[in-house]
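Quick one, probably user error.
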């Protein structure tokens, strides 16, 4: 009896110690705004989501395995909170933003699942608007403006991936990723949706600079897409200038490039954000530019109110327009302009 009690006590103590070495966190962001967008002589007014940060709900956890080794998971889904839906305005909640399992240690991190591609990160890190809201740059999936047949499925995230991240190395950062299209070995397009990419750079103190590259296989070689970009920022305290340049090329020869120059500047408890971007379609006059300016005021560490104004100017027959999740006035008139504004609030938890 005494031995049984001692064994039970030891087991209880071990279970308590093990649970203390594990953690699971519920986290999220809810972002909503009143907005109006205009294009092609039409306008739309209503409520948008993700004007400053992408609305999301997620679960993440880490377990200490001992010896400096840890296991972790990350499940995160998009919220269209303006209509109460999931990853878009017509589907329920899912974990399409990120679904990964990791093994971490002194060697770095090995990550498996659906994740952000390496070539995506520069487009959001060096955008003052973080690829969110009406102010975001149009450097995501630019190839759509040059070739409707190009495979842009992994412009932001990729399925069935294995990624490796370098450990902390005095500011040097890097990652590599491969993704599997999971086609049959005897299929004519057996490489379709296979991808690989990498990102390398430096981020320490006020300076951050990175180069990103990625390639996604299509159903034919002409359908392949190659991404290449570079971004940099330098925090001077009173202002943080940012620069981004990127190109996307299809195997068919279609190509589009874009650059963005912007900044963030703290003003009291808030921040001014501004950006100007220019986009060039190869062998075409159908180019466009975009400018955006906004201000966010922090009511607390987790809650911010913000306002943004944006304008797109098209050349040739281009029809790009200002829009955001849940609100669009359609395409602009060929060679015409489009404008928009939004006033919103973001709360994180």
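Nope, works fine. Designed sequence:
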């Amino acid at each position: 009896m005494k031995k049984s009690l001692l064994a039970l006590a030891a087991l209880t103590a071990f279970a308590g110690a093990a649970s203390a070495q594990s953690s699971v966190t519920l986290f999220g962001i809810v972002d909503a705004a009143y907005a109006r967008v205009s294009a092609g002589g039409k306008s739309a007014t209503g409520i948008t989501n993700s004007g400053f940060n992408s609305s999301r709900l997620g679960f993440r956890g880490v377990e200490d395995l001992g010896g400096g080794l840890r296991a972790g998971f990350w499940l995160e889904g998009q919220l269209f909170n303006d209509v109460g839906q999931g990853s878009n305005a017509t589907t329920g909640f899912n974990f399409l933003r990120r679904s990964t399992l990791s093994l971490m240690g002194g060697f770095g991190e090995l990550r498996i699942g659906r994740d952000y591609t390496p070539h995506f990160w520069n487009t959001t890190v060096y955008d003052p608007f973080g690829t969110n809201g009406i102010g975001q740059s149009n450097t995501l999936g630019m190839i759509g403006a040059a070739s409707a047949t190009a495979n842009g499925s992994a412009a932001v995230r990729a399925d069935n991936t294995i990624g490796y991240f370098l450990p902390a190395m005095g500011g040097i950062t890097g990652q590599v990723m491969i993704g599997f299209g999971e086609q049959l070995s005897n299929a004519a397009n057996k490489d379709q949706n296979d991808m690989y990419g990498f990102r390398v750079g430096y981020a320490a103190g006020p300076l951050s600079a990175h180069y990103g590259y990625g390639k996604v296989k299509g159903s034919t070689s002409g359908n392949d897409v190659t991404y290449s970009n570079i971004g940099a920022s330098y925090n001077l305290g009173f202002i943080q200038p940012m620069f981004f340049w990127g190109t996307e090329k299809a195997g068919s020869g279609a190509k589009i490039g874009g650059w963005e120059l912007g900044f963030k500047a703290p003003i009291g408890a808030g921040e001014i954000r501004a950006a100007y971007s220019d986009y060039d379609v190869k062998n075409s006059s159908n180019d466009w530019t975009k400018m955006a300016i906004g201000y966010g005021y922090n009511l607390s560490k987790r809650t911010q109110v913000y306002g943004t104004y944006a304008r797109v100017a098209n050349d040739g027959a281009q029809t790009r327009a200002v829009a955001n999740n849940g609100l669009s006035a359609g395409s602009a008139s060929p060679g015409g302009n489009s404008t928009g504004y939004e006033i919103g609030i973001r709360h994180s938890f």
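The chain has one domain: 28-348.
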